């Protein structure tokens, strides 16, 4: 091989860091060490007499067979003296790599050789690839991209950026990136961005920009600093995405989250937010505020009788009327159901809140046409004041609610200011309710027994069980102080059951002991009929205690029969069928409607003690008692006169043909042991 190159060339050839080879007649006949390194061969002889295609993959990247293409390149070099082109070679380990090849004709003595130089261009190829990819991404992404120099002058943008802002590429190149500012953000906002870019190299957030047509729109912007190899910042990039659409959905979601879909008024959540804000302002400005709680009266019956659509129409009408009365700065909210609230801020005085409430009442209580029906809404309003009644949201809403209930109790179509006493009352009630719960668990409720006496014989023929509460701290508590609350809270169901059970057990024991029958009268509250278990509970008590059905009388009042007539009558019938007796308590104080009485399976009447009271002197009462007794006899009902306090009253009752009596004249209600003593005395 050595003879093909003269000595001086030989040195250049050997020491070149580029791969160099010699081709003679289409075959390699010499190469330098750099070639061996590049291909991974150890000895030159391995390359001798090889055709270039043998050191290449079978095809080149343009698809031509390497053999054909190599011959073509060689002949081009032969024709032109030299030829430069790109080629893919294959290393001994099978990996391909791109090279730039320069073929140069060298005339030798009797033939023409080709001098070959290969330069590895893998790195350049990779860079080109990468550039192509990033250009592709830039061009095709829907996010706007902007690149600026360190002075924020725009040096590159992509089509999406141009489209987003409505400018052409030429219009923006070279401009300062702040050119599209919307004017919606203050200097501090942009300072914060700069700060973040400086310290952390990036920033992202929502920002408003202005399009070429002047339209201001929201974008999500991501800014990044690009550093050069030495770590010095050299560019900023900005990635813009249009979020107008997202903003719109957000607004719709907010509407759903904070407004009542029916009346379009703020809902409870927004009401809370507004009230908190209003209170904050009040604290700062030392101003006053009034909170109105509005509740429609008898709304449920409207809903039940005319249907929900009518109810909805009514709510919309009421909401509109309230809104028309108050100033636009005041909040009218719908809390759900038939409850509305109004926040009146900047209140001049207490009086003004009352005036607003009166105006609301006046405007709302006007006929509304719902279909063919003319309906007048009724409402009750409660008012609490900041700072007079309370200073926080919880207290103010609670107090306005309480005041509203007071207004309702006064018959509705009223407004009522909160008073401190309301709070104390309700706190007392809450304590009592809790204590009652514990009392029910610890058997603090016991029956006292009052005898029912046969007027003719003077003998005890029955007994009424009357509840008493042995309170651990407050001693004996009378029923008037706990029965109404127990009825309201529902605790009467448990209480009634406990009294009935104890009384059955006790009276059964006395009957056995004295070998004598007594009737046992137990009071039932209307609320107990709401429990589906009433009939079952009573029967269980009778079975467990062995008390005979026919000796039990349940006392109910007339008002209980007036409510849910069918439901109550149904249960009373079931009880009556098992042999239990029914009596009407406090007879004469209620409706005393005969037609009602006939529809219930009654056994007796108890004449209310107000008629017995002045019986000896009040002729009017004498007439009433006389009428009741004759009516009872006609209806084959037993009669008991209660509240008998004197022998004169007893005498009169006897004249009027009353058979049984009950009252202090005979005995007060007594605890079991004392009642037993009384029994022992009268029976022996
Ligand atoms: P009521 O059923 O009308 O009971 C008669 C009330 O009159 C009892 O009051 C009794 O102590 C009282 N009384 C009896 N004789 C006289 C008298 O000669 N003069 C006067 N001034 N009063 C007399 P008490 O025990 O305070 O019970 C009051 C009410 O509480 C009862 O009226 C009844 O409605 C209710 N109550 C008592 N215990 C129960 C119970 O276990 N369940 C239910 N649901 N209510 C009960
Ligand atoms: Ca009674
Ligand atoms: Ca009574």
Strand and helix layout:
Blueprint: H1 7-15, E1 19-24, E2 27-31, H2 33-39, H3 66-80, E3 82-90, E4 96-107, E5 112-120, H4 122-140, E6 144-148, E7 154-157, H5 159-165, H6 169-172, H7 187-200, E8 202-210, E9 216-227, E10 233-242, H8 244-258, H9 268-285, E11 288-297, H10 299-306, H11 308-325, E12 331-336, E13 339-347, H12 350-364, E14 368-370, E15 373-375, E16 378-386, H13 393-409, E17 414-417, H14 420-441, E18 445-454, E19 460-471, E20 475-477, H15 483-489, H16 492-514, E21 519-523, H17 534-545, E22 552-557, H18 558-562, H19 565-577, E23 581-587, H20 594-598, E24 604-607, H21 609-612, H22 619-634, E25 638-642, H23 647-655, E26 660-662, H24 672-683
Parallel strand pairs: 16-17, 19-21, 21-22, 22-23, 23-24, 24-25, 25-26
Antiparallel strand pairs: 1-2, 1-5, 3-4, 4-5, 6-7, 6-10, 8-9, 9-10, 11-13, 11-16, 12-13, 14-15, 18-19, 18-26, 19-20
Helix pairs in contact: 10-11, 11-12, 16-17
The structure holds ligand C2E and calcium ion (2 copies).
Going by CATH, the architecture of the largest domain would be Alpha-Beta Barrel
If strands are numbered along the chain, what order do they take across the biggest sheet? Answer: 18-19-21-22-23-24-25-26
**Main β-sheet description:** 8 strands, mixed, barrel
Distance between the termini: 153 Å
| CATH topology tier name of the largest domain | TIM Barrel
Query: What is the number of helices?
Result: 24
Please give the oligomerization state of what you see. Answer: single chain
Shape: elongated
- What's the mean pLDDT score? 91
